[in-house]
Amino acid sequence: MSVSTEIFETFEHVAPADIEKTSFSIIARELKEKNISLPEELAPVIMRVIHTTADFEYAETLKFSPDVMQIVKNAVSNGACIVTDTNMALSGINKKTLSRFGGEALCFMADEEVAAKAKELNMTRAAVSMKKASEIQKPVIFAIGNAPTALVELCSLMQGGFKPVAVIGVPVGFVNVVAAKEMIMKSGVPFIVSEGRKGGSTVAAAICNAILYSMSDRRD
């Protein structure tokens, strides 16, 4: 079966190096058409999430606690770790850029000790991995894109005195997702949260990368 010439003619001819730049220009234009104005400091995060998902609803549903952007940037500048709840989010974070600031991205979901402890306690691996992450002897930023149980466990740990730098809480789903996000927003921890059911590991990684890229001119 041949593809008609007319279909090819509908494609925009954009150089590979310009695809992302063109995409962001389209996003900016469509936000303007929708009469949506983004705060300058938050725009890089919101626009990168829209770029990742093609979902403009995030312009309304991404919520930021006061000064969270500066809090996270300061922590990254001082070598903070980013802990995720999925290997997918881990793989999406630009670890080379993060390493320039002395930090590293980690995920304990495949850790044998975590798996054994989760089975013993009848808990999710995500929840147990949060406990393991709380023992890291460095400032920690959490980027949760899948498991609401991770957010619930973080709230429990914080009640016990644990103090993460910030929580990026964007798990996706239908069971306890909304309630877990609301818990984080009421916990007193600096947060970036997607209200409602939407989110995901790609969103968590996009938020991390937007912050990293705003701190660095290089994105390799």
- Number of helical segments? 12
Output the structural class: alpha/beta
Q: Multimeric state of these chains?
A: single chain
What is the number of beta strands? 6
Low-confidence stretches: none
Dominant shape? globular
What distance separates the N and C termini? 39 Å
Give the fraction of residues assigned to helices.
40-55%
What characterizes the major β-sheet? Answer: 6 strands, mixed
Q: Strand-residue fraction?
A: 5-15%
Helix and strand run:
HHHHEHEHHEHHEHEHEH
Average pLDDT, to the nearest integer? 92
Radius of gyration: 19 Å
Structural notes for this entry:
The chain is an alpha/beta fold. 51% of the residues lie in helices and 10% in strands. The protein has a six-stranded mixed β-sheet with strand order 1-6-5-4-2-3, sandwiched between helices. 39% of the residues are buried. The model has no long low-confidence stretch (mean pLDDT 92).
Q: What order do the helices and strands come in, and which of them pair?
A:
Elements lengths: L4 H5 L9 H15 L9 H11 L4 H4 E3 L3 H10 L3 E4 L2 H6 L2 H5 L5 E3 L4 H10 L3 H9 L6 E5 L3 H12 L6 E4 L7 H10 L4 E4 L6 H15 L5
Helix pairs in contact: 2-3, 3-12, 8-9, 9-10, 10-11
